[in-house]
Amino acid sequence: MDDIQKKLQTKSKATFQDYFGKGICYLCIGLIILLVTCILYFIASKGLATFTKNHVRVLDFLTKTNWNPGAIDAKGHPDIGALPMIVTSFSVTLLAAIIATPFALGVAIFMAEFSSKRGTKILQPVIELLVGIPSVVYGFIGLSVIVPFIRNVFGGTGFGILSGTLVLFVMILPTITSLSVDSLKSVPMYYRQASLALGATRWQTIYKVVLRSAIPGILTAIIFGMARAFGEALAVQMVIGNATLMPKNLISPASTLTSKLTTDIGNTVMGTLPNNALWSLALILLLMSLILNMLVKFIGKRGRF
Amino acid sequence: MKEYNLTDSYITDITEKKALSTDNLQVYYGDNHAIFDANLNFPRYKITALIGASGCGKSTFLRCLNRMNDKVARVDGEIMYRNTDINSSKINVYEVRKHIGMVFQRPNPFAKSIKENIIFALKNAGINQKDELEERLEQSLKSAALWDEVKDNLNKSALALSGGQQQRLCIARSIAMKPDILLLDEPASALDPISTSKIEETLQTLKKDYSIIIVTHNLQQASRISDYTAFLHLGHIIEYNSTVNVFTHPKMRPTEDYVSGNFG
């Protein structure tokens, strides 16, 4: 066996470097998978204890409107109905998304199609800055500006879904905008050229060609915005009123899943029913964000025509 | 690269009816002067080829003709179409492009169905009657020699077509607008020989009704399909003559070198 044949059949330094690199990657992936599984297991086991250990019926939990974990009703069941929180959470999320989308799209179209390079250079950091502002600051501004404003205009306390929606609107605007800009910019230049060369106006080109082919990306942007709104706790808690009641209108105090969690989690004892009930709320939040994430994947896959 | 005297040129007079002509056309990319004093007359219902080495400005020149260089480059000089200077800033560019269609180097159908690709521009132009749309759809696809291949699948995605079919769809899409002039920017350079010959056949039949200006890298293609040929070098139009003359009796030295392969 000559030297070359021997070298061909033995492992060299490069081979071991390869193993080492792969090893590190797998280790990191393993850690993250472990972490996610632990979180899922922890929340699920705690959240399901309400139903398995404390014998609350799932249907009651999802449809009843009284939230009073300490008390027991006439039939001996604990009074745990999460419907008000679920309804409020969905209301603020959907309303915020509905209000934010047109504004975000407008800004995104301006940035991707109209503004000069310099304009984009100025706008981009402004929008990124909005993402970076801590939620407590948004909540504080909401508390000192929006709540009094709503109180003056509509009466009542000023706390409620409307205030929550307005705060969330500002918070998810940059998310939807920057993701939409990316998706508009990824529409190939030759689509625009083809459209213009056919005598289409700029507006026709944007509306019928660019926006059409960016739809999956824009929907993804909206869903990411909704995920952020759904999971936002602090800012919402500061303006929503924190009353565990079925919302009667947009300006009556209410409480979302997240705001209920942040308000109450410090006041309950680990392992008791009131604590488990809060974990059940967390489980709903987790499931919702899973569903939203899957929706994003699904839209991404359906993608283009 | 050989040094040539770029100021000498031979430009033949076109005695036929003109579809389009340029007068002292200059193009600048920033400070970079890309096209110098282009004076060309394009005859009606003929195919005119623009040839030249890469970077000589032939695509740049072509793109001026339907104002696709707006916001990309500065274009000075006149482009006369129906006795109107369409290079003026007062001109409605969208109308210009309705009369002067363009097909690009890479097939670029929209991510829509075949049918929607064709009627896209028609609907934008305000044509909404169903019969009219159907008729134009069929006619343009037939003119582009694509009808027989796609007539059963008009609602299929245009992206599912082969490259050659996509390019013919792009031609069909342009002629659905019934333009006067068709500009083609190396329409066959991304295609295989069979698709190329189909495109060439299509162009031969289209020239009955359209004045065609085509940019091509492929000298055989230029000699096969065109009636007139312009040779460009470094932004200058060196020679413009009937295709036969350009290829068999070139008047200028650079042209002779280029068509005989002694260039550079």
Number of domains of chain B: 1
Order of helices and strands of chain A: HHHEEHHHHHHHHH
Distance between the termini of chain B: 4 Å
Radius of gyration of chain B: 18 Å
Q: Describe the main β-sheet of chain B briefly.
A: 7 strands, mixed
CATH architecture annotation of chain B = 3-Layer(aba) Sandwich
> Into which percent range does the helicity of residues of chain B fall?
25-40%
Highest CATH level, the class of chain B: Alpha Beta
Strand content of chain B: 25-35%
Summarize the structure.
Chain B: It holds the Pfam family ABC_tran. The complex is a heterodimer of chains A (305) and B (264). Chain A is mostly helical and 305 residues long.
Question: What does it look like?
Answer:
- The complex is a heterodimer of chains A (305) and B (264).
- By secondary structure, chain A is mainly α.
- Chain A is built from twelve helices and two strands.
- In chain A, strands 1-2 form a two-stranded antiparallel sheet.
- In chain A, helix 6 runs parallel beside helix 10, helix 10 (234-240) packs across helix 11 and helix 11 runs antiparallel to helix 12 (273-302).
- With 264 residues, chain B is an alpha/beta fold.
- Chain B has one domain: Rossmann fold (3-Layer(aba) Sandwich).
- Chain B contains ten helices and eleven strands.
- In chain B, a hairpin with a 2-residue loop joins strand 5 and strand 6 (84-85).
- The A-B interface holds A 188, 190-191, 193-201, 204, 208-209, 212-213, 304-305 and B 66, 68, 94-98, 101-104, 106, 108-113, 120-121, 124-125, 157, 159, 170, 173-174, 177.
